[in-house]
């Protein structure tokens, strides 16, 4: 999730832009930049890595008097983290910063190249500034050119654009990515992609809504809605605390990240759902040349997404698939064959066991792919191929949105391989894509669900442990649910295949044994139901998560009626995450930073 700041006023602009970007560092980034327009001339600075690198680059620069400026911290989604790919992006007489993904950027880029524009970066963002200048050069007024540019963009965006053609103005647009305007009694004007950048500088803010756009200059706030009608800005008060601003009003980063899943899942799919096929611009046909099987290698939550993927890979792509704990893989002297595609999955891209396993595979000459959330991480740099999960920074130690985007990417990858291997018809892939498109809506947190898990959580604070049970892909989901609860409640939990309970664990069944049973309608429902009945008959305390009530359960968390088991998977995932969080809250634990844990385990 990139960070955006903007300023119009007479104070020293560079310093204000850098201060604003610092307040957005919590969003995570791999490069940063600013552009300042003063007396018709631009000064721009960009740097890789942390903001201190950018500060060094512009240390000898300062503005005097009125200026307009924009700034940006970039979390790479299209194009590697490089200075050229850092924002702001420039045209001949304009600069732009952008947060989000322009889904049709390749088509627009081709059009602009044919129109004679020169692109410097690999990013989707750069098409915006060239489109604007193209329309301006066709004779449009600057605002008209901005409107014409917005009309061409598909996808999610928050944009700030400055141009020498109107050097006291900042054009802005908001669609799918956050953007806020701030004002103060000194008539200064600010932009921020989060309140955090505006607290302490502004007295009031305008939270822009999707489709709203316009421009600011010293005298004007011109705001238009998606019907292009001028609207009166709604001024609001700012939150007091920066930390609560960073959590954007949620109690914990984990809570915020559970609520963000719907949005980041849309990001993970943007530009990748084609017409009857999956599009991964990061891959090419060579990835499967000579490949006979796949090995996933990862840890923790990333192991659970790999295990879920193994069902989809064999079912849809008909490719033999193995899954290994990295900490086991690296010492068991595994057979490494070049006919194996070695896939590491990691939110951080730095987990020591996974990284060392990747090095072993590379040393043995295997082709490697990283499914990762942090571009420029060690695993990304080492792997032959990378697919970014696009979850944005995940600050909660207990992984949520990273898991969700990993599963979505792996589901898409199974379809991508199914097409390459000819194991699914175009129609069948198109049907799966239709289902994929429903995932963001299915993961939007409803008040009813959150309230249900909050109320239920009081019943699960003690007892001698939890079983989370499920079949097929719901077994890895059960493992994930068990891990979520374990790592933030410190209660003992186990994930187990439903069908395995009678092979020993059912001996534990009694009223103090809590079982969270996943009962999807569209995957082995009757089998899983009978497993639950076996537990119920022995008076275990059971909470069923399903689209229909189960009379032999003590508690029930409803999900909506779905037409595909993977939609049930994602809905149950949200319920499990919320239930774990609410139990941990009642136990008074530190939800975001549980004891003994680190966000990235970079040691053995
Ligand atoms: C997940 O909730 C845990 N924090 C942990 O299991 C994590 O998934 C594991 O350490 C792997 O991390 P990675 O995805 O960054 O490699």
Could you provide a short overview of the structure?
It contains 18 helices and 24 strands. The chain has 604 residues and is α/β, with parallel strands linked by helices. It is globular, with a radius of gyration of 25 Å.
Q: What is the secondary structure topology, with strand pairs?
A:
Layout: E1 3-9, H1 13-23, E2 31-38, E3 41-48, H2 51-57, E4 67-74, E5 89-90, E6 94-102, H3 105-114, H4 126-137, H5 142-152, E7 155-163, E8 170-175, E9 180-183, E10 189-192, E11 204-207, E12 212-217, E13 220-224, E14 236-237, H6 242-246, H7 253-269, E15 293-298, H8 300-316, E16 320-325, H9 326-329, E17 340-346, H10 352-363, E18 367-372, H11 378-382, E19 385-388, H12 401-421, H13 426-436, H14 439-442, H15 447-456, E20 466-470, H16 474-489, E21 493-497, E22 514-519, H17 525-536, E23 541-546, E24 555-558, H18 565-586
Parallel strand pairs: 15-16, 15-17, 17-18, 18-19, 20-21, 20-22, 22-23, 23-24
Antiparallel strand pairs: 1-4, 1-10, 2-3, 2-4, 5-6, 6-7, 7-8, 8-12, 9-10, 9-11, 11-14, 12-13
Bound molecules: 2-deoxy-2-amino glucitol-6-phosphate (AGP).
How would you describe what is shown here?
34% of the residues lie in helices and 23% in strands. The chain is α/β, with parallel strands linked by helices. It folds into three domains: 238 residues, Glutamine Phosphoribosylpyrophosphate, subunit 1, domain 1; 197 residues, Rossmann fold; 147 residues, Rossmann fold. The strands form four sheets. An eight-stranded antiparallel beta sheet has the order 3-2-4-1-10-9-11-14, with helices on one face. It has a six-stranded antiparallel beta sheet with strand order 5-6-7-8-12-13, with helices on one face. A five-stranded parallel beta sheet has the order 16-15-17-18-19, sandwiched between helices. Strand 5 and strand 6 form a beta hairpin. The longest helix is centred in the last third of the chain and has 22 residues. It is globular, with a radius of gyration of 25 Å. The two termini are 30 Å apart. The model has no long low-confidence stretch (mean pLDDT 94). It binds 2-deoxy-2-amino glucitol-6-phosphate (AGP). The site of 2-deoxy-2-amino glucitol-6-phosphate (AGP) has 16 residues, from helix 8 and helix 16. The site of 2-deoxy-2-amino glucitol-6-phosphate has 16 residues, from helix 8 and helix 16.
